[in-house]
Amino acid sequence: MLCLLFYTLCAGRCPPGQTIRIPEGTTSIADRQYEYCVTVDTLIMPDTVTSIGALAFDTNPIKKVTLSKNLISIGYAAFRNAGFEEIVIPDGVTVLNQETFYGCSSLKKVTLPKNLKSIHTRCFGKTIVEELVFPYGLQYIGYEITEENRCLKRVVIPDSCTSIIFYAFAGCSGLQEIILPKGIKALNESLFSGTALRNCTIPDTVEIIGPSCFSRTDLKTISIPPKVIQIGKNAFYKCWALESITFEGNNLKEIGQLAFSHCGRLKRLTFPSSLVNVSMDVCEECNVLRTVVIQCDLKAFVYYGDTLSYGHFTELKTLVYESNTPIPERNNFSIFRIQTLIINNSNLESMGDIPDAYRLSTIVIVDPSSKFTFSPSLRKDITLNISISRSIKGFTENVFENVSIDTFIYCGKSISDNSFLKNSKGFKKVITSSAFRGETIGGVKISEKTDQCTQLIPFEVKYQEESGSEEPEKTNEPEKSSPATASSNNNNQDNSGGNNEENDSSKDGKGKGKGGKIAGGIIGAILILAAIAVIAFFIYKYKIHKSENDSEEQHVELSLV
């Protein structure tokens, strides 16, 4: 330090004392003219100065400065490592060059010039500036302009700005609010990575969201505007608070690797129909992601790298399939993990094949085409609940030959029938709409007909996020505890080998149904009386217990007296 001081004084660069006073009439300050004047704390500049050269006041601990009102240009790193807390930049300045105020560790407040057009690399790096409101007319924001600024809380970028270079605000851990320009087309790499952003409105003009753009932020919800065609690698990586992602349009083509990975609160995600390329690890370690809606072709899901890991979508339970193409038997999507499959596309005529879905327990067909044929290849030895909301063409005859059916609900009026249920490994309950024509379906007798058939189908699964909800189990609820139902179930299982016995016993079944209703009524009355007796008993016990407590309290009070 002493050598540096000796050098600067001997070289005549620094005036004696603590003040640099620029002579009146000076128009420009040369490059490095007052560099390393380490004893100076005040700068007085006349209004005749129009330009300041590169490194002119580099590493000067200046605490007080008033710039020339007629200043036009400030060179590279002109005030780097200065000590002032506030700076007003004159309106004549149109460009803030690289590292102009870099390392000004006390700089809190900046008044930017009204005619500013561009701001360049690390201009306000390592400062403690709390707010940057850029003037209208700004066109360009450079690389890491606020590097390592942990105090920046708010940034407003005008609509005139068309280019924001990658990493511009990365690492600003205090940044909570950003207002983006409406005309911007690309949000570049790591633009807001590591900030504290909780909300961000992405302009409708944006087409590309770059790699790591919003990674490690505090976003809770995000809407992807309709013109976005690409979401880059790690775009929302480790957004721990992110709960909701909405895709507003249908132009998105590609979602990169790990784009939504480690989003620990994300419960539901939709993949739009326009997608042609989705990395299979897009949601890796999203440990509460229970429901995925797929509107695109499953072939869009691809692996990158050399390993084919099935560690993705590990907690997925419900798949809502809305694609226009049937499920391909061979696909990269981890469909074998799902428990509930909902097919929701009235254009499909078949659902495809799912032979690897060993956890599958529920299939719901929502508003299918009248040409739809239920003919998937299914996993052997599983037990299914099947619900179909309206009439379809039919089932292939042996579709359930290796499957057991727990509950079968069909809300259509008719079907091209065969023995698809009779040929299953077994079944428990068969429910149809009251409007269904016939007393049998799939070669077996119907257990129950109801006017509220569609209300028994768990449509809600499609809209509700998984949170311990019991909605998928609704298919087990519609059974009525009448002997008629039990009788018909027993008849279905016992007589599945022959239709003649079913036809011969149909009249007896009706008689048994009437008797069953009477028996059911008697049993119900007995249960009601028993419940009343139990309630009365507990009321009686409560009164006795209370009177005993009252007497004990009274005894205690008397003792105290």
UniProtKB/TrEMBL annotation:
Pfam families tied to this protein: LRR_5
Signal peptide positions (record): 1-19
SUPFAM superfamilies: L domain-like
Keywords from the named record: Membrane, Signal, Transmembrane, Transmembrane helix
Composition skew (Basic and acidic residues), residue ranges: 471-480
Listed Gene3D superfamilies: Ribonuclease Inhibitor
InterPro entries: LRR_5, LRR_dom_sf, Surface_bspA-like
Region (Disordered): 464-514
Transmembrane segments: 518-540
Compositional bias per record (Low complexity), positions renumbered to this chain: 481-500
Cited PANTHER family: IG-LIKE DOMAIN-CONTAINING PROTEIN (PTHR45661:SF3), SURFACE ANTIGEN (PTHR45661)
Record protein name field: Surface antigen Bsp, putative
Organism of origin: Trichomonas vaginalis (strain ATCC PRA-98 / G3)
Species lineage: Eukaryota, Metamonada, Parabasalia, Trichomonadida, Trichomonadidae
